[in-house]
TrEMBL record:
KW Transmembrane (keyword) present: yes
Transmembrane stretches, start-end: 35-54, 189-208, 220-238
Protein name (Swiss-Prot/TrEMBL): Uncharacterized protein
Keywords tagged on the record: Membrane, Transmembrane, Transmembrane helix
Length: 283
């Protein structure tokens, strides 16, 4: 209805009608048609690869999350098998894995006062810069570095090192997939091309009323509504894929629900093992 209203408003204007007649008499209509076709083709050529690029980035994120959670569970199993009996070391390693899950895998960071309180920000720059901030943390603040340091002596250290190394590779893939790579000018160009297509469509189609009469304009009103709907869907799909998947209200492609399900069992096991350790101390 909005597209039809705009269409009727443009065509019904006296100045617009005189301009259309002038366009038809001096063959300028073909030039506007060429602009319209060029803008539509350019939009199609740019929106297709943009969608594939963003979808591939989101697909890589899901694969890396599954690898990372699987390796984290393997690390917990190794800690349980090789460190049981060494109480201080066992508790320290389990606490490191729990810190890694809460502060890194869930894509949140600790507050600046060091109280391990989870900080959640609603600003876009916070989530945009988060992958780079996580990868640039000091080794002393990295739980995996603590695990390597504690287990560096003895034969089990090599096994821990292999698991931690693979876990860091999966983490690097996850952070790389989370990092925003597409500049804003890409979407601005797509919006500009869509605007050109929508502005030239009424001018091109209204000139055909001298051939098909007013009845043809009613058909083109429906076409105008379909074009507006198609452009809106494509641009909304691209904007949803561009949103950082870990931010609050991250859109239709948010990974928080999937990640919550994936790490639920891991966190429950870590809490149960640490609680069992605390109970044994009390006994």
């Amino acid at each position: 209805p909005i597209a039809d209203l705009i269409y009727n408003h443009i065509v019904s204007q006296p100045l617009a009608a005189e301009t259309l007649e002038l366009i038809l008499t001096d063959n300028s209509n073909q030039f506007i048609q060429n602009i319209h076709n060029l803008a539509c083709l350019t939009f199609a050529f740019l929106s297709g690869p943009t969608y594939l690029f963003l979808y591939k980035q989101r697909e890589t994120l899901y694969y890396s999350l599954f690898d990372e959670v699987t390796l984290a569970k393997s690390l917990v199993e190794q800690i349980a098998l090789m460190s049981r009996g060494r109480d201080d070391m066992y508790e320290m390693l389990l606490d490191c894995v729990r810190r890694y899950v809460r502060e890194d895998l869930r894509a949140v960071v600790c507050d600046c006062d060091g109280n391990n309180n989870i900080v959640v920000s609603s600003s876009d720059s916070y989530y945009t810069d988060l992958p780079a901030k996580l990868i640039s943390r000091k080794p002393m603040d990295d739980p995996m570095e603590t695990i390597l340091y504690v287990t560096s002596v003895g034969e089990p250290g090599e096994m821990y090192g292999t698991t931690v190394r693979e876990l860091r590779k999966a983490r690097a893939k996850r952070l790389g997939a989370l990092q925003v790579k597409m500049p804003e000018i890409n979407m601005q160009l797509l919006y500009a091309l869509a605007g050109i297509c929508l502005c030239t469509f009424p001018v091109v189609s209204a000139g055909s009323r001298t051939v098909g009469g007013v009845a043809l304009l009613h058909v083109q009103q429906i076409q105008m509504g379909g074009v507006v709907f198609a452009f809106g869907c494509v641009l909304n799909f691209l904007n949803e894929l561009r949103r950082v998947p870990t931010e609050i209200g991250g859109g239709s492609y948010n990974v928080d629900d999937v990640l919550e399900t994936m790490v639920k069992g891991l966190e429950e096991e870590l809490d149960a093992r640490l609680k069992e350790k605390t109970v044994s101390y009390t006994d």
